[in-house]
Amino acid sequence: MLQHLPDVGSPDPEMRTSPIFDEYEEASLDQELEAAACYFNDISYPIGQYVHSGGEVLRCDGRGIWVRAGEIRPEEPDL
């Protein structure tokens, strides 16, 4: 499954990227976080989309924010 996830790289501070939260972290009520999609480096992704960023898997949540959904460990080389 992981090989089919878009690899988005690291967030570029010069480009639009939706906020990234931990799975159990609550978004602040002060933030206006309602969108129909998530953005990562100026590219729009639909609600429910999973992407690979560094060692993490992110899921686009229903409010247009990224939620950390897991980690990807690098494969161990054969000895």
User: Approximately what portion of the residues adopt beta-strand conformation?
Assistant: 25-35%
Structural class: mainly beta
Point out poorly predicted stretches: none
Q: What is the first-to-last residue Cα distance?
A: 26 Å
Reading side by side through the largest sheet, how are the strands ordered?
A: 1-6-5-4
Helix content: under 10%
Please trace the helix and strand order, writing H or E for each element: EEEEEE
Provide a count of the helices: 0
| Count of distinct structural domains | 1
- The count of DSSP E runs of length 2 or more, i.e. the number of strands, is 6
Mean pLDDT: 83
The biggest beta sheet reads: 4 strands, mixed
* Spatial extent as radius of gyration: 13 Å
Shape: globular
Verbal overview:
The protein has 79 residues and is mostly beta strands. The chain has one domain. The protein contains no helices and six strands. A four-stranded mixed sheet has the order 1-6-5-4, with no helix packed on it. It has a two-stranded antiparallel ribbon with strand order 2-3. The chain is globular, with a radius of gyration of 13 Å. The two termini are 26 Å apart.
